[in-house]
Amino acid sequence: MAYNADGKRLFSCGTNKEGESYLVEWNESEGTIKHTYHGLGKSSSGVVQFDTIKNRFLAVGDKFMVKFWDMDNDSLLTSTDANGGLLASPCIRFNKEGVLLAVSTSDNSIKILANSFGIELLRTAEKHILLESLLGVFCR
Known about the structure:
Elements: E1 2-3, E2 10-15, E3 21-27, E4 32-36, E5 49-53, E6 57-62, E7 65-70, E8 78-80, E9 92-94, E10 100-104, E11 110-114, H1 116-138
Antiparallel strand pairs: 1-2, 2-3, 3-4, 5-6, 6-7, 7-8, 9-10, 10-11
């Protein structure tokens, strides 16, 4: 279970007794399900991992894929296999700004998925690391 960024919406994701995966938003005051998000696999082979970002999006690692929903829409927004190599139920986490998403892979590493802002952030970081490496060589 997890709250969204402003702590006003509670979500849970998992697998029921029948092996069906689910992602829901709860109405805490009534103890009832407010939204059921559609598009998860019928049967999960492990613990379903999810994360929220910016009071807007949900992401779930399911069936060797990462699936995305707009919090205000029950239908699947999009999904990606991240060019392959993901676990059946990959662990996923957004960075604080919500522009990068780390996803666990089958070879015990991670893939970083990024939107256009995240790509620019990675390019800036790469330039910074390269500059530090060059300065380290020249300053010895």
